[in-house]
Amino acid sequence: MTSTPIADEGAAERLDGLLRSWSATWFDTGVLAALETTGVADDRGQYRWLLRLRGDEKEFVTLWLTLRQRTVHVEAQVMPAPDERIEDVYRFLLAKNADLHELHLALGPESAIYLVGRVPVADVDADRLDEICGAALHYVDEIFPTAMSLGFGSLYRRRRNR
């Protein structure tokens, strides 16, 4: 078994350059609405990028990429913690989780529902970014309306395609 090497000092700069060059195509398609970063490490030495993607079912999907010691952590909120039919929501999400690739569903802060994943730093390239962002958009668009209808049935009304 091999272990993923620790990211070197230039990893953040390389990932930033890759994201900027890769994002041009996604901006041109209109799917990517924003790419932001502070450009400096946080108090844990991690760098973060925010990608704001336009969805069909959920207007925007915010995807966070965090450069950690050995991996790029991927995270997108699917929905807030459900208020209604909580057991049904979790049953639906657990069943969906078995079919997901690259990302998986998890409970996050305040019991919100997230898609999360980890990719070894050395494996992140333009094709892998396409896979990750495509998967995040697809999964949120597939999961969001049903999960929201179950968890917020008295409040949620499905968007109609524009």
Order of helices and strands: HEEEEHEEH
Number of domains: 1
Q: Major β-sheet, in short?
A: 6 strands, antiparallel
Proportion of helical residues: 25-40%
Task: Report the end-to-end length measured between terminal Cα atoms.
Answer: 49 Å
The counted number of beta strands is: 6
Work out the strand percent. 25-35%
Query: Which word captures the global form?
Result: globular
Strand order in the sheet with the most strands: 1-2-3-4-6-5
Mean pLDDT: 91
Number of helices: 3
> What class would the helix/strand composition place it in?
alpha+beta
Description:
This protein has 162 residues and is an alpha+beta fold. It has one domain (11-151): Yope Regulator, Chain: A (2-Layer Sandwich). The chain is 35% helix and 27% strand. It has helices at 11-29, 86-97, 126-151, and strands spanning 32-37, 47-54, 60-67, 71-79, 104-107, 113-120. It has a six-stranded antiparallel sheet. Strand 5 and strand 6 (113-120) form a beta hairpin. Helix 2 (86-97) runs antiparallel to helix 3 (126-151). The mean pLDDT is 91.
